[in-house]
Amino acid sequence: MKLQRYRHDSPVSYTLGATLTYEMLKEKPELVKRLFIRPSTDRESGIGEILALAAEKGIRIEESEKAFNILSPKGNCYLIGEFEKREERLKPGNHIVLVNPSDAGNMGTIVRTAAGFGFGDIAVIRQAVDFFDPRTIRATMGAAFHMRVEYFDTIEDYIKKFGSNERYAFMLTGSTPLPAAEKREPYSLIFGNEATGLPDRFADFCTAVRINHSGAIDSLNLPMAAGIAMYEFTKNIWNQ
Amino acid sequence: MKLQRYRHDSPVSYTLGATLTYEMLKEKPELVKRLFIRPSTDRESGIGEILALAAEKGIRIEESEKAFNILSPKGNCYLIGEFEKREERLKPGNHIVLVNPSDAGNMGTIVRTAAGFGFGDIAVIRQAVDFFDPRTIRATMGAAFHMRVEYFDTIEDYIKKFGSNERYAFMLTGSTPLPAAEKREPYSLIFGNEATGLPDRFADFCTAVRINHSGAIDSLNLPMAAGIAMYEFTKNIWNQ
Lengths: 240, 240
Prior knowledge:
2 copies of one chain form a homodimer.
Chain A: E1 12-16, H1 18-27, E2 32-37, H2 48-56, E3 60-63, H3 65-71, E4 79-84, E5 95-99, H4 104-116, E6 121-125, H5 134-139, E7 148-152, H6 155-162, E8 166-170, E9 176-177, E10 187-191, E11 207-210, H7 222-238
Parallel strand pairs in A: 2-3, 5-6, 5-10, 6-7, 8-10, 8-11, 9-11
Antiparallel strand pairs in A: 1-4, 2-4
């Protein structure tokens, strides 16, 4: 297949770097199409284990300088994985819901933190950054391969499917302070766009929660707010 | 004074952008040396209020394309503030302590979050990223000007000065889960380097605290761990 720079409508995406590629090979080998290795890379030291795992799974390994020039022109990585983009349906249970997230790095950090607190399902409401963008995948540091991520056109489409979840919308104007929110499972923790937050109307169909802080800042940044909420909602599980 | 790209040993640093410069003018006008404005910028719309404030404080405004080429070659900003780097001594009370932080963006995010949870004092143990680096200052989104930041050569130097603070060291191997930690004031919340964390020996002179999470990730990222710890330690203040 012809190689070109990653695009939203491409059927494949890429793991840039050895650690990330290893994580994918362990967790989702069925998605991996091939690996690219930089010519004259020492195949024994460091990446020997990765190449052995790939060989065991019958995955092709191509030496190609060109692949690195196209896919990681500024990077200093020497191993890239190509994988099939396959959107998974969410499972019933507790969900993270991101409404119009716009930054690949932020989304990656949220995916990583969500995996850390035991979440396996993230709903994303469009318009939104591309979960499969190599920059997002890289920012998850491998947690992308532990997560189901499903896109919806509107929040109503999400609610149509998971309407019985208790909904908590995180808003600067929320009436319920985070520690006081009753945690009723299964739940959806809902976060808005980096710059604009959630529209006011979310308070009509969600418990509107705020994370209290001083007036020295306008708001916490999005991954921070999401991480603190996930910590508070799951701490009884992780600290029994 | 001759303009050159920012260096660690420069006596001045820069706020790149209008919002950041405005925050500095409001909070720390005594540090501001001059402002640079891109030639042919409309002085009425948007930045009129900032220029009026600068004029009121007697701060010089220079039109200079060159300043932007030197200080923000890739940026699209049209206002830069030059300020005197003045390290402040910490005040007694609750502190954040960063041991060998290496990333400007992470340090900026931690400063912003700390300001949000009411902290005014951050100790930084060398080797460490430069708080005054324009990239750090920008990542704080203005919170830099609400914070005292003092550098120490070793953790022992810090303890010599603030030995009566209760010390909590955040470590993956910590024996005390965060929610169970007794919060005794005044305290120091201590965080290690992004890649290596804190040395084991910190458990000898601190309460070693861990933030429990699943095995799907190696660790939370540094700003996330710091933000969750600050939330937990201050939530009784912010949610009375």
